[in-house]
Design brief:
Layout lengths: L2 E12 H10 L8 E6 L4 E5 L2 H5 L7 E10 L14 E2 L5 E9 L2 H10 L11 H10 L5 H11 L2 E9 L4 E7 L4 E5 L2 E5 L11 E4 L4 E6 L2 E5 L5 E2 L4 E2 L15 H7 L1 H13 L3 H13 L2 E6 L1 H16 L4 E5 L3 H4 L6 E7 L5 H12 L3 E6 L5 H5 L2 E4 L12 H15 L10 H23 L4 E6 L4 H15 L2 E6 L16 E6 L4 H12 L3 E6 L6 E2 L5 H22 L18
Parallel strand pairs: 16-17, 16-18, 18-19, 19-20, 21-22, 21-23, 23-24, 24-25
Antiparallel strand pairs: 1-4, 1-10, 2-3, 2-4, 5-6, 6-7, 7-8, 8-12, 9-10, 9-11, 11-15, 12-13, 13-14
Helix pairs in contact: 3-4, 4-5, 7-13, 7-14, 9-13, 9-15, 13-17, 14-17, 15-17
The structure holds fructose -6-phosphate.
The site of fructose -6-phosphate has 15 residues, from helix 9.
């Protein structure tokens, strides 16, 4: 994870108003600490979010080249010393890094023997010292070639030398892009860093090096041979930074769902229709379809499996981080990645594994030009627009709609016309109830959500939202499995949400089993007299609308508890480490 931004410009730019303003756009990648270095050799670092740090940076501070970093801690605690940039022994070379150097201990020991002094607990610092050491034998390009040769693991690195208005970059597995702007260049972990300044980008491939100054850029492969890079024009809806009229991005994004859903449906029927046709063709030709995803996207994928299996498409899914261990893929398999960011390392690794086994790769992503999209033969876009809150809401809904849309091509019934309105009605009719229930549940720490069949993935996603946003220990589970163990935890007053799509008689029995033990049952169903009534005419729609209730509830419990809703502790939106 972590976000990195570097700028080189022919004119001086304000560090605060330009570099750090761009870094803020990447804060969703981590917000444990922040820092920057300028080509003049000025370095500042701080713990916590950018907004707290930025006020310490003089508004008049300018630079012609600078690099910056927002951290999601992996190796080493959240301290100022561990904040990037890190420097060499002499304080003449600075680096920012996203990724993990797996063999850093071994490299560090070797460098310490050569006299290098380390000041942090991070894996990243080894990059600065390794470059310093290799610079004794040659220039920065060959030092970066050594880094590529010697470092194991993942990295997107920007390096700056004191007194040079030039940024050096190298990457493996972690994402890195170069934005071609007016009067200079912006390097960033993704296109958010520069999408307001340009629509032209160059995407780094693995084991590539770039040298960038205000006049131009050069790319090299790991052997130092020049590489001609394609300039990509991208389209990306910008997100306004403030003034959206809601207390938090999360609630803004919950309310955006009807619009986002409509945009996706329209796009799948028109501009993305060709890609849908191509993907459906690939699905028909494949012996089996395997969906791969993490977190919320996995629950959407699980729903996809339900929809497809109903239509006799052999489909499976597995959490990306365990993909290699539990799924069989070969040449006759189509692997479809489902990912909001398109950068989740576990998903990227699973795709690499699948590719090696000869599988075909496709994707459903929200961020265009992301790594996952670029690895895929065909990729549908979720059209949800930028999602700022770390917790996925509108992108989950659009992922499920995309799944439903694909399944509908195999005969699964769904009424796409009325869906956006049903989401709107669900929010309007239930937000007040969610608010009231949040007051009752704000002190509870254990909550269960049960669902069967089509509601089971929704129960999991409902619980996921309660955990990450409201810090409630919530378990989303199969209604039928409750009696095989977990029921022992249900006592008088234990909150148990029951997702009850019309016609599911078994969930009615499971709900009664909870009630008989004194559990506090909260029913979500299409019946008008249930605790939360949703206007779902079929299972697919029910699956989406029941999660919307979970989103509202998680938001309001978190609000009652005074939690940092858009940036929950320990999390980041784009998880680019294993
Ligand atoms: C949940 C959440 C995470 C992500 C997961 C996968 O609200 O945001 O669980 O769903 O990290 O991320 P993507 O979809 O970007 O691959």
């Amino acid at each position: 994870m972590c976000g990195i931004v570097g700028i080189v410009s022919s004119k001086e730019f304000p560090v605060r108003g330009e570099l750090l303003a761009r870094l803020k756009k990447l804060e969703y990648r981590g917000y444990d600490s922040v820092g920057f270095a300028t080509s003049e050799g000025l370095v500042m670092r701080g713990v916590g979010e950018l907004s707290k740090f930025i006020v310490r940076v003089p508004a008049e501070l300018e630079a012609k080249a600078a690099i910056s970093h927002t951290r999601w801690a992996t190796h080493g605690g959240v301290t100022e010393a561990n904040a990037h940039p890190h420097s060499d022994c002499e304080g003449k070379l600075f680096i920012v890094h996203n990724g993990i150097i797996e063999n850093y201990e071994e490299l560090r020991k070797g460098l310490e023997k050569l006299g290098h002094c380390f000041e942090t607990e991070t894996d990243s610092e080894v990059i600065a010292h390794l470059l310093e050491e290799r610079l004794k034998r040659g220039g920065m390009k060959s030092a970066l070639m050594s880094l590529i040769r010697e470092a194991k693991g993942t990295f997107a690195v920007l390096a700056l030398r004191k007194g040079e208005e030039r940024i050096y970059a190298a990457k493996r597995d972690s994402p890195l892009a170069l934005g071609i702007a007016k009067g200079g260049f912006i390097l960033g972990s993704d296109i958010y860093a520069f999408s307001d300044a340009t629509d032209k980008a160059v995407f780094f491939d693995d084991d590539e090096i770039a040298v960038v100054d205000a006049k131009g850029y050069e790319f090299f492969d790991a052997a130092g041979k020049p590489v001609r890079k394609k300039v990509t024009r991208f389209k990306w809806a910008r997100q306004e930074e403030a003034g959206h009229g809601h207390a938090h991005y999360m609630i803004k994004e919950i309310h955006e769902q009807p619009l986002a859903a409509e945009r996706l449906i329209r796009s799948l029927e028109t501009e993305q229709a060709k890609k849908v046709g191509k993907l459906v063709g690939m699905m028909r030709r494949a012996k089996r379809v395997v969906l791969v995803a993490a977190g919320t996207s996995y629950f959407a994928a699980l729903l996809g499996v339900y929809f497809l299996n109903r239509q006799n498409v052999m489909a499976h899914t597995l959490i990306a981080s365990e993909f290699e261990n539990y799924v069989y893929v070969d040449k006759s398999t189509l692997v479809i990645a489902v990912s909001q960011s398109g950068e989740t390392m576990d998903v990227v690794s699973a795709l690499k594994f699948a590719k090696k086994r000869g599988a075909k790769i496709a994707a459903i992503v929200n961020v265009p030009h992301s790594t996952v999209q670029r690895m895929s033969e065909v990729s549908l876009e979720m059209m949800a627009g930028q999602e700022v809150c770390v917790a996925a809401t509108k992108t989950f809904t659009n992922q499920v709609i995309a799944m439903l849309f694909l399944a509908s091509k195999f005969g699964f019934h769904a009424n796409f016309e009325s869906l956006p309105l049903q989401i709107e009605k669900t929010i309007a009719a239930n937000e007040g109830k969610a608010k009231a229930l949040a007051k009752e549940l704000k002190g509870r720490n254990d909550v269960y959500i049960i669902g069967r069949g089509i509601s089971y993935p929704s129960a999991r996603e409902f619980a996921h939202k309660l955990k990450e946003i409201a810090y409630v220990h919530a378990e989303g589970m199969m209604g039928g499995e409750l009696k095989h163990g977990t029921l022992a935890l249900v006592e008088k007053g234990t909150p148990v949400f029951s997702l009850m799509p019309a016609g599911d008689v078994d969930i009615v029995s499971n709900t009664k089993e909870v009630e008989a033990r004194g559990g506090r049952v909260i029913r979500i169903s299409t019946a008008t007299d249930s605790d939360f009534s949703i206007p779902a005419e079929n299972g697919g729609v029910f699956a989406i609308l029941s999660v919307v209730i979970g989103q509202l509830l998680a938001y309001h419990i978190a609000k009652e508890r005074g939690l940092p809703i858009d940036k929950p502790r320990n999390l980041a939106k784009s998880v680019t480490v294993k």
